[in-house]
Design a protein that fits this description.
Blueprint: H1 2-22, E1 35-42, E2 46-54, E3 61-68, E4 73-77, E5 81-82, E6 87-95, E7 101-112, E8 117-128, E9 131-134, E10 138-144, E11 150-157, E12 166-170, E13 177-183, E14 195-202, E15 209-219, E16 226-236, E17 239-242, E18 245-252, E19 257-269, E20 271-275, E21 281-284, E22 290-299, E23 305-315, E24 321-331
Length: 332
């Protein structure tokens, strides 16, 4: 009986040691970022944050479960299966309409399937009932590169402090927009409102791609000295080309192949030139203006071997250009 009891204790200790060794390794997938604090935000704000998950191990991993400790937070994975070196994003949306004051939410991310480990993330925020944002964020949506659109957000204070004010506005210096502050406009038939209208204007040189920038408002209220909101959008290239590259294999010297390329824009434009032609590659340019133009690429190589040309299509859209890659393999 004593031997059986000792064996059982040994098995339990071995299992406990193995579990202890496995616990926590999933947290290493997050690169040290396990917490995010949204700070003080007006009640009703939709708060968004994404955690990056990278498989640093030499085996395939699966995210088998994501649990949250509060229904006021929604979690969504970009993918559940991660091969070695792969990256996934865990997108979180915290709904400031569903709680008042300080709130911390735990997010449990379980990884397997052979060995199981759970990473515990923490997300927190403070909602204020005396400050309102309208809308909850500035969203530029989809816009073409070079469009200097303007959007605004109203920050209205309804608290007891007669001297409440925003004393500084902070944003990343690389943000693709500029900010300007005005007093809140007075609504018809209502008393003056206390607060600010913050206007964001896109920079003409904003880079192509999605962006999400946090703006911080520093106030003179020591209880909640900082408020935050998001500015989001997607800058699209003014020109779209399809296909973006041409590849022709096993051509014979002296043969001719023609390919069609479609160039599109949101407004009518003209192609004024194509740089980089040569080595038997020429382009016929249409002599007209439209929102969609078709280029004819003529491929007639005279030498044997591999040819790679980067053509640069120039237009009259504020001198905007777009590249086209042409790759040709010529055999005897």
């Amino acid at each position: 009986m004593h031997k059986a009891l000792s064996a059982l204790i040994a098995i339990l200790l071995t299992a406990t040691t193995a579990n202890a060794q496995q616990s926590g390794w999933a947290e290493k997938l997050f690169g040290g970022e396990l917490t995010h604090d949204f700070g003080a935000v007006p009640r009703g704000t939709q708060m968004k944050h994404s955690f990056k998950i990278t498989n640093i191990y030499k085996v395939q991993l699966q995210i088998t479960e994501v649990r949250v400790s509060c229904g006021c937070l929604k979690a969504e994975l970009s993918t559940k299966v991660l091969n070695p070196g792969d990256t996934a994003m865990l997108h979180l949306n915290m709904d400031g309409r569903q709680f008042n004051g300080f709130k911390t939410i735990r997010v449990f991310v379980t990884v397997g399937p052979k060995f199981i480990s759970t990473a515990v993330l923490s997300v927190s925020a403070v909602t204020r009932g005396d400050v309102a944002f309208s809308p909850s964020e500035i969203d530029f949506g989809n816009l073409n590169r070079g469009q200097m659109l303007a959007r605004h957000i109203d920050v209205e204070y309804a608290g007891d402090r007669a001297d409440w004010r925003v004393i500084e506005i902070l944003k990343n210096s690389s943000a693709p927009f500029e900010l300007r502050v005005e007093d809140l406009p007075r609504l018809v038939g209502s008393s003056p409102r206390r607060g600010y209208r913050i206007l964001a204007t896109m920079r003409a040189e904003a880079a192509v791609g999605n962006f999400k920038q946090e703006v911080v408002l520093k106030t003179n209220d020591s209880a909640t000295p900082m408020l935050t909101f998001q500015v989001v959008g997607n800058v699209q290239a003014g020109l779209a080309i399809s296909p973006g590259s041409i590849a022709v294999r096993d051509m014979k010297a002296g043969e001719t192949v023609t390919k069609k390329v479609f160039v599109r824009a949101s407004k009518a434009f003209r192609i004024i030139g194509v740089d980089g032609q040569g080595d038997g590659i020429t382009v016929d340019i249409p002599n007209r203006q439209d929102t969609t133009l078709v280029l004819t690429v003529n491929i007639q190589p005279t030498a044997i071997g591999d040819i790679r040309k980067q053509l640069l299509i120039r237009t009259d859209l504020d001198a905007e250009t777009t590249p086209l890659i042409v790759e040709v393999s010529v055999s005897p």
